[in-house]
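Pilot study result, target chain (311 residues):
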Amino acid sequence: MSRDTYSYDPQEVRDTTPRRPSRRPQTPTFDETKGRGGGSGNESSAGTTREPSRPPLEPERLDSPRTYSDRDRGYSLRESEVRTLAEVGTFRVVPPGDLAKYVYGGDNARMERDMRRLKQASLVTDKTIEVSRKKTLRVVTLTKRGHALLRKTGRLPEEQATYHGLLKPKEVRHDAALYRLYQKEAVRIERAGGRPVRAVLDYELKRDLNRELVRVPKNEGAAEERQRIAERHGLQVIDGKIPLPDLRIEYENADLEQRHIDLDLVTRDYRPREVSDKARAGFALYSPSEDAPRLRRILNDRDLTAEILSL
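Predicted structure:
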């Protein structure tokens, strides 16, 4: 079942880092999203070139440790270890296999060596969780100590929220897939000449909505005010509710314009109406390959033209 169609349910979202208000990027235009899921995407036609948002790691023998301090304790960390802390902190929960692929260039042995050192320093936790009767999933999260140290490194922009610990263990399989979802869209953005700037999880979007919706008086103008609030956050009201994406990527396009793309990972556990609401809200929909045919049938039955891409 989807967890993130939002009507009005004020609650405190834990473990987010306060950030300064930022300008809400516009949603992508047709040209910027052309080619999603089908190959190379658009190349920049303006001749603009950029450095990769995440350059490859240096060979391990050249990756010399550097000392980072938090309170009265120092930590000797390699660049690869700091980058791992940043990736895990941004997405809350990440499978080690995905870290090996996207951070370590497929070098699983190097990833495991770093993971052992980070665990010994009590900066990360490494757990294997049962996600079904026959399947388990290994995931990494930051500890409170790791979260505090990450902020001290200055590795991430101040406005990038970071997290530690498992918030909802029952949803860990879904949440762990969001890191891989981000990587797929980040590649598309960069192929089109853009640059990802910030990842925004649904926790943060819900927190920001709560802060404004809690002040809306219950009167005849409440519906119009909720609509204005949704629009300020780049969202829509669908049948009286505000669907939230699992992930928003804020980025610069090839012309250095601020944009964002909202992504949602839909699965066979979603009810037909939930899939429909996500599509009507304009989210880019991804699903596990084995679930995609059923979900496409749901959209076809409801005469919705949204595309469902395989994760």
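One observation from the pilot: The chain has eleven helices and eleven strands. A full batch analysis is planned for the follow-on phase.
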